[in-house]
Amino acid sequence: MEHRLKRALTTPFIILAAFVLWFWEWLWDPLERLMARLGRLPLLRRIEARLMRASPYLALACFLIPGAVLLPFKLIGLYFLGHGAPFFGIATFFAAKVLGTALVARIFALTRGQLLQIGWFARSHAWLVCFRERVFAALREHPAWRQACAAVAALRARLRQMRRGVFYHLRCRWRAIYRLSRRRGRLTCC
Fold it and tell me: 20-76 pLDDT, tens per residue?
């Protein structure tokens, strides 16, 4: 019984873990770049300069603030979900998650040196990176992951074919319109 239950629950949890890790990895770099662009604003530039000069424990406090500030919004999202408003719940939770990831990514990029000076943080960071790599390695070996990757690759190939088809069709139509306009002498743009 226990073996069957474990086997039945393994694939959904692996897919959920893969989705969460993919979501985190997918958002981290683009959001950090977006926040870096926003950091060019004069006020934010000054704040970031001070943050980069902060002591390690002040940097740690600043690193933890977005999670603490956005936790109530995530709880509000769960409240909406629990009270029959799934759209508002998911939207609120998703917005808080994206904003929190953006802030944490930027603050970590600015304060990485200071944060890694704290012994337990450096050990936790190393353990988390190692754990993430082990989870990704295990996910890549799982048949459900391979099937999902194959399905995504097939979908991308199909979309590329469709896009090429649409662009080819539009290009042919444009050429036909161009030739017809030239024949009639109505082309004024060239």
Answer: 766 666 677 777 778 888 878 888 888 888 888 888 898 888 888 888 888 888 888
Write the Ramachandran bin of 84: left for phi over 0, alpha for psi from -120 to 50, otherwise beta: left
pLDDT, tens only, 99-118: 887 888 888 888 888 999 99
HSE, side-chain direction, 13 A CA sphere, residue 65: 12
CB 116, CB 125: distance < 8 Å: yes
What residue has token string 């649409």? 166
Q: Where are the alpha helices (DSSP H) in 83-142?
A: 86-115, 119-141
pTM of the model: 0.61
Indicate the DSSP class of residue 106. Answer: H
Residue 153's H or E segment, with its range, is helix 143-184
Q: What single-letter DSSP state applies at residue 41? A: S
Residue 150: both structure tokens together? 């194959």
